[in-house]
Design a protein that fits this description.
By secondary structure, the protein is mainly alpha-helical. The chain contains eleven helices and two strands; from the N terminus they run H-H-H-H-E-E-H-H-H-H-H-H-H. GO terms for molecular function: transmembrane transporter activity.
Length: about 290
């Protein structure tokens, strides 16, 4: 019984830490899909791009991946604004964003993936930092530093974004743009400009999530596809466009996956996110923090 309790507690703690990382991956989708109505399924590929940038600067110059992730948010932000400008001109103005816009991001997903494969091959790549190996042991619970640091950084990222959305004019405009464009224009804000900024922020978070990912595990160019369904499920489960909901849902999924992997095997873990999604759609279609 004591061994079971120890395994359960350890798996819960591990799941919470992994859930923080899932939240960092999903927050960009929560902004793009939840607030702007843009199904950016290429987001996981951009996360992998961030991982490989962290890998190059770590392996060549010894830079810390977290530092690389922070610095890379700037070029990723401008990349996002360029992608949205192309998307808006090609699809939103013509009212064809639902299907053709989705195909646009499918294409971006595969172009990014193939580009990474051409440059780095299909081998797994990893980074070296002093905190990847050590762990803190608190009783039966082990806290790997390589999981603890991305968790804390993810929490800070979500708190910073939530404060920005709630306390600044631009942030409130982003939250309003999907609800009432006319009212937003009366506030003196241009909807296209607001959405361009929001999509830039969404893409910038991919740089941070990519740094977290390569700290947690080795990466290869095609593994981003493994996360597409999971992060969309987290966004829907937490409530479309809700950052606190995204975090809570990510932790729930992380804990559930960790417990399942510990007691039933890792092969069952991928089904957990979709199981929670189906339950949420039946019980509370708006999600945990969504408006009913």
């Amino acid at each position: 019984m004591g061994q079971f309790a120890g395994l359960l507690l350890d798996s819960i703690v591990s799941g919470v830490l992994v859930g923080g990382f899932y939240a960092a991956m999903a927050v960009g989708i929560s902004i793009a899909f939840g607030m702007l109505g843009i199904s950016n399924i290429a987001h996981p590929a951009l996360i992998l791009l961030g991982s490989f940038i962290a890998y190059v600067l770590n392996s060549q110059f010894g830079w810390d991946p977290i530092l690389v992730g922070v610095l890379a948010t700037v070029p990723f932000y401008f990349l996002g604004t360029l992608l949205y400008s192309a998307y808006e001109i090609a699809f939103e103005r013509r009212g064809t964003q639902l299907i053709r816009g989705l195909a646009f991001f499918f294409g971006l997903l595969f172009i990014t993936e193939v580009g990474l494969q051409l440059v780095f091959g299909v081998d797994y790549r990893l980074v070296e930092t002093p905190y990847i190996g050590p762990s803190y042991n608190i009783g039966p619970v082990s806290l790997p530093v390589r999981m603890l640091i991305p968790f804390l950084a993810s929490v800070l990222l979500l708190i910073g974004l939530q404060v920005f959305f709630m306390r600044t004019f631009t942030g409130r405009a982003i939250m309003a743009v999907a609800q009432d464009k006319f009212a937003l224009q009366l506030m003196g804000a241009a909807p296209v400009r607001v959405k361009r900024i929001a999509f830039g922020l969404s893409t910038a978070t991919a740089a941070m999530a990519g740094a977290f990912l390569i700290i947690l595990q080795p990466v290869e160019p095609s593994m981003g596809r493994d996360y597409i369904g999971r992060i969309f499920a987290i966004c829907v489960l937490g409530g479309i466009g809700s950052l606190p909901g995204t975090f809570v849902a990510a932790v729930i999924v992380g804990v559930a996956e960790s417990i399942t992997a510990t007691f039933y095997g890792p092969s069952w873990s991928p089904a957990i996110a979709f199981g929670f999604l189906l339950i949420a759609l039946v019980v509370r279609p708006a999600g945990l923090f969504g408006r009913a």
